[in-house]
Each structure stands twice: as C-alpha cells, then as structure tokens.
Automatic annotation (TrEMBL):
It comes from Methylocystis bryophila. GO terms for molecular function: acyltransferase activity, transferring groups other than amino-acyl groups. Keywords: Acyltransferase, Membrane, Transferase, Transmembrane, Transmembrane helix. One of its GO terms (cellular component) is membrane. The chain crosses the membrane at residues 30-50, 71-91, 135-158, 165-190, 196-216, 228-250, 262-281, 293-313. This is Acyltransferase. Residues 14-310 form the Acyltransferase domain.
C-alpha cells in the first residue's frame, strides 16, 4: 500500500480531481467525464484486490463478508443522494410522469443494481455505481483468475471487446478490463516509477490542453458546427484514461494523511451529489458569465453539503462497517491454514 511520500501525487486529492473533472464535464462542453470514470474503475480494481488479500480473504465466509462490506460502503450514500435527487425533482416540478416500473425504480435507486438500464435515471452519474457493484460481485473470481497468470488479462480484453453480445452497457462487461488492470497491478506489484508517472501526467495534461484550446476557439469564433471537436469522443476519452493510468497507479502507493483520506471519501459524495445540485441551480441557463457564477455557487454548495454528509452520515457508517469486518477476522493460525 503506502510506499512513498509524494505530496503532488496524494491519492485522495487525485480522486477529488477526477470527481471535479466529472463536474466540469456536466457544466461545459469539455466532455472528459468518461475518462475520469474509467480511471476510477482502475483504482477500484487496485484497492479491491489489495483489500481482498489483506483483509477479506482472512475473514469468516470471505465472499459474503466482502460483498456485504462493499455494499455497505457505497449503498447508503447512494440511497441518500437518490432521495435528495428525487426530492429536488419534485420540488422543481420536473419529476417525469412516466418512469417505467415504479418497483424497479425504487429498487435500483436504493440498491444500485440495474441503475444503468433504468428507462429514467434521476441521478445520471449513478450509472457507474451500477458497474462498480457488479464488479464487486465478480471481483473475487477476477482476482483468483489473474493470480494464476497475468495473461488472463487477454480474457478480460476479449470480454470488453465482445461486450455488446454479453449484455452491453447493462452489465460490467464493457468496463471489466479497466477493473482488471487495477487488480493485476495490485497482484503483480506493477509499480510505475516516479519518472513514468509524471511523464504520463504531463503527456495527458498536454493532450487536455489541446482540447481546451479547441474549446476556447469554438466559443470565441462561435463555431457551433465545431461542437464535435469540443465534445471528446469515446475514443479520445479512452486515450486520456490509458495515458493517465500510470500516474493513477503511482498515486495509490503514496502516503495519505487524515485530510487526504477525507478528500478521498468526499470524492464519492461529490460525484453523486453534484448532478442534483446542478439541476436545482440550473447552471446551464443564461450567458457564459451567468453560468460561470451559477457553477461556482453550485460547487461551493456541493462541497459544503458533501462535507456534512461525510461527517455525520458516511464517516460514522464506515467506522461501523470497518468494525464489523474486523469482528469477522479469523485468528492468525486459522487464516494461515485457510490461505494454505
């Protein structure tokens, strides 16, 4: 886990930067949100594999403990943000008349599974949490297979390529290779050097600068037909995610203090909460100057409310969850026999 001390690569701060990239995606035409989500998936794969080896594999009923723990970690905040989102929709009189099956809506808004295939998604960023939870269900198998050979990555590449015939976006299949890359990094100790990590970061920032220049050019010249140049394609987002991955995997091996860990926890809340707040403030209306002011106001509200949610809801629940997992740990001798 933490092996270095690079203040410019703090893991919590990096994750917050990714969350703010999604905020930028939803407040401008500078569409880099998907690349941030793909990097989140890589980081998730790394941390899940690390936690499985260090903790969950040494508990009673490891798979059950793992699934309950990970669901416990993400579902309460997801459900709370769903309630906030729907409350704001009804408050603004914008709740849709037709949402498909009400039972399905309630289930997925509370328990996440199936959210990405809902006919109406009240909190659009929630789709990625559906993929995350689906990954948790198969993560121990992914870890087991990759522990046998790193060449198993080819299977996950093939799964991603063939995903449209394996359930498409309703399943984790299109994204499994990103989770698997993180898992492989953890299992085989694939550690990008500091030099490689910063080359990765600088190259990615240079590419993003080029896209930002196109963004400014289109605004200045009013070239509406140039919108496709501004909106990053799925291929461009994939390229950005791949280029940034070495730096992302470098950050996970840096020391993280209490403030940085808090930032890491806040990332998840900011990611889910920003969508309903942006909708409530209607940041997409008016002149560029007015929209900038509204977006700034929204960001302050999002960060403030996220902190309150973390301090009085998420953090206490997480401490309770961690204590429950600790209570299920096997004695050292039993854990060694189980591992053997």
């Amino acid at each position: 886990m933490s092996e270095g001390s690079d203040p410019f690569a703090s893991p919590g701060a990096f994750r917050m930067a990714l969350a703010l990239s999604v905020f930028l995606h939803h407040t401008t035409s500078y569409n880099i949100g998907m690349s941030a989500v793909l990097i989140f998936f890589v980081l998730s794969g790394y941390w899940v594999a690390t936690m499985w080896a260090a903790t969950y594999s040494k508990t009673r009923a490891p798979y059950l403990t793992f699934v309950v723990s990970r669901f416990w970690r993400i579902a309460p905040v997801f459900a709370l943000c769903s309630v906030i989102t729907w409350g704001l929709l009804y408050w603004r009189g914008e709740a849709p008349a037709v949402i498909g099956s009400h039972a399905r809506q309630v289930f997925s808004n509370l328990f996440i599974l199936g959210y990405n295939s809902l006919p109406f998604q009240a909190n659009v960023p929630g789709w990625s949490l559906d993929m995350e939870l689906q990954f948790y269900l198969v993560a121990p198998l992914v870890i087991f297979l990759l522990s046998k050979s790193i060449h198993v990555l080819a299977i996950f590449v093939l799964t991603t390529v063939l995903s449209q015939w394996l359930g498409g976006a309703a399943t984790v299949a299109p994204f499994i290779i990103f989770f698997a890359l993180g898992v492989a990094s953890a299992i085989y100790g694939l550690k990008p050097s500091r030099a490689l990590a910063y080359r990765s970061l600088l190259a990615t920032l240079a590419l993003l600068f080029i896209f930002a220049a196109l963004f400014v050019k289109n605004i200045a010249l009013g070239e509406l037909q140039g919108r496709d140049l501004v909106a990053l394609s799925s291929t461009s987002n994939l390229l950005v995610a791949v280029m940034m991955t070495p730096f992302a995997l470098y950050t996970v091996r840096q020391k993280s203090g209490p403030v940085d860990r808090m930032l890491g926890d806040l990332t998840y809340i900011v990611y889910l909460l920003h969508w309903p707040v942006l909708g409530a403030i209607q940041t997409g209306e008016g002149s560029y100057g007015n929209r900038l002011w509204l977006c700034s106001e929204a960001l302050v509200i999002i960060l403030a409310v996220s902190f309150v949610v973390w301090r009085y809801f998420d953090h206490p629940l997480n401490q309770w969850r961690a204590a429950w997992v600790a209570s299920r740990k096997l004695p050292a001798s039993a854990a060694a026999r189980f591992a053997g």
